[in-house]
C-alpha cells in the first residue's frame, strides 16, 4: 500500500529538524489517536503540535537529557536585532549564562529571586495534547493553548518553580552563583526565538516607540517579546531594582490577569475607540508593578466597578483610573490613609439627560450665521475671525496655544469676584423659587450674567483640530482625585504644572430640570451624605420671559458624573473658574460648564472653584457646609467671625 502522503510530509518536516521518522512514528500515532485523526491540528503551524509532542514524549521517557530543548531569553548573547535561527553548527550542549549580572535580569529558571528583582513570563504553554481533553477543531485547540497561562512563580515571594512548558527549562546545574543558570542548548535544529526587547520607562510603561531599542540587557524594567517563525510567542516581564521597592514581591499572575481583565477588557476594548495593544501592554506593566509593590492586593468592586488596590499595612487605597477608560487620560484616585469610603458614583464623560430636560440638539436649529460652514482646517489661523467668534465679541476666546485669552479670562474673573448690579438679571418667575413654593414663589434673587465661550461644532467647516474646539476635545491634563487633609472629603489636584487659562475639565452630570433636582433633594435630605453635587445652569435665566419647567436645567453629579464632581469650593481666590460654553445648542438653556485655571497652577496643587454660594442660604441646592477652604477671603469664616463679634 502506498504510504499516506500526509505521513510522509510529517516525517519530512521532522527530518528537517533532525528528527528521524523512527523517532516520530510513535508520537505521530499517539497524536492521531488523541486528535481523532484530525490532521489539520497536527499540520498547523508547520507541525508545531507534532514537534511539541515529540519533545514532551522524549522528556517523559527520560531519554537523553542533552536532547532537552531549552530556550534562552536572557542570554548574554541575546540577539540584538531581528530573528535568527540557531545556527546548525552551534555546539551541542553549549552552556549559556541566562543572566547577565550587570543587567539585573533574571531568567525564569532562577531558583532564587534577589530582592527587588523579579521576572515572570507568560508563555504560550504546552500543547493541548498534554491535556486530556480532545479539541475538536483547530480553533478550539489553539484556544486551549492560549487560555492556559502558566505561572512561573507559584506564590508571591517564593522562589519561582520550575515547570514544564512547551519548552523545557533545563534544571540548574547547581551553580553556586544565584544569578547564573545554565541552559542546555538543543541538539536539534529547533529554531531560536526572535527576541525583540521593548523598553519600559521608569513607571513601568511600555514604550512602543523604543521597541527597536536593541539594548536588551539594559537595566531598566522591560518587556521582552520573543517569537519564532513557527509562531511561538513568549512574553517576559522584567522589573529591576530601581522599580521594585523593598516590599516588592512577584504578584500572583492570576491576580495580574484578573486585574487586567477587569480594567482593560471591560473598559478599553468596549468603550475606548483608541484601544491599542500598546495601551494594553502598558497596562500590563503598570498593573504588574503596582500589584507587586503591594504586600497584598485585593480587588473589590465598589458600586462603580472600580478595581481598588489596598495596601494592608498602610491601609492606603488606590484606583488606577476612575474613568474606566472613558477619558483620553487616566485619572487615578488615592487615599493615603484609607480612612474614607470610596466614592460611589458612576463615571460618565458626557452629560446625560435624566428624564424631562428639554435639550434640543439638532443641526436645523443652528442657523447658517451661527456656524462657520465655509471655514476649513483651523479657524484660529484664518485672516479674519469667523462667525463662531461673534459670541465673544468678534475675537476667539482661545489663543493658538489653546489657553484662554488673558482679557477674556480677566473679564470672567472680575465679573465673578466683583459683580456689579448690572451683572445680575432677575427672572419674572424664578424656577428656583418656584420649585420651593410653586403657588407663592418668592421674588427672584437674581442670576449672574455670564460670558459664554462658543466653540465650533458639527455644522462648521473646520476640523476637530481647530483651535476653537477645546472643551469638546475633553480632558488632557494629568489629574488625581485624592483625600484632602482639611476635612473637605475627596478633592482634585493636578499632577503637572498648568498655565493660566488652561482647560481642565467640564462639570459633568445628569441633566435634570430644576423641579427634578428639588424633588431629588427632598428625597435625599434624610440621607447622611454630607456632600452634594448639583450645579444650576442659570446663566441665561433672566434674559428670557418665563422659562418652562423643562427649560430650567441643572447638572447633578451625585450618581453619575465626571471628575469635576470632586472639585472643592474655595472662597474668592480659587484657581479654577467655571465658564459656560456653547457647543451644540444655540439657546443657552443647556450649555457646558467648563473649568479653566485662573492663574498658573503648580503640580500637586488642589484645584478649586468658587461655588458662589451664600453660606446663609440654607435653601441653596448645594447644601450649606462648614467651609474649610483656607482662603484669607473665606466668606464662611468671616460670617462666623462677625456673628461671634456681635
Ligand atoms: C462637589 S462636592 C466636592 C467633592 C467632595 N469633597 C467629595 O468628597 O466628594 C461638594 C461637597 O464637598 C464638600 N466641600 C467642598 N468644598 C468644601 C470646603 N471648602 N470646605 C468644606 N467642605 C467642602 C462639601 O461637603 C460639599 O457639599
Name the descriptors.
single chain; alpha+beta; 5-stranded mixed β-sheet; 10 helices; binds S-adenosylmethionine
Sheet with the most strands: spatial strand order: 7-8-9-15-16-24-21
Gyration radius over CA: 32 Å
Helix content: 10-25%
Major pleated sheet: 7 strands, mixed
Q: Which small-molecule species are bound to the chains here?
A: S-adenosylmethionine
Question: How far apart are the termini?
Answer: 115 Å
In terms of per-residue confidence, which ranges show pLDDT below 50 for 5 or more consecutive residues?
63-221, 267-271, 294-304
Structural class: alpha+beta
Total number of helices: 10
- Beta-strand content estimate: 15-25%
Residue-averaged pLDDT: 72
Outline: elongated
* Quaternary status: single chain
Count of individual beta strands: 24
What report would you give on this structure?
- Helices cover 20% and strands 15% of the residues.
- α1 packs across α3 (39-60), α2 (21-34) packs across α3 (39-60) and α5 (253-271) runs antiparallel to α6.
- It is α+β, with helices and mostly antiparallel strands and 646 residues long.
- The protein is elongated and about 105 Å long.
- The chain has helices at residues 5-15, 21-34, 39-60, 138-147, 253-271, 277-292, 406-417, 431-436, 514-524, 635-645, and strands at residues 95-97, 118-123, 182-184, 194-199, 222-227, 233-239, 308-310, 317-319, 333-335, 346-347, 352-353, 424-425, 447-448, 453-454, 479-483, 490-494, 503-506, 509-513, 534-536, 553-561, 568-569, 576-582, 592-597, 606-609.
- Residues 63-221, 267-271 and 294-304 have low confidence and may be disordered.
- The chain contains ten helices and 24 strands.
- 40% of the residues are buried.
- The structure holds S-adenosylmethionine.
- S-adenosylmethionine (SAM) binds at residues 343, 488-491, 530-533, 565-566, 568-569, 622-623, 625, 627-629.
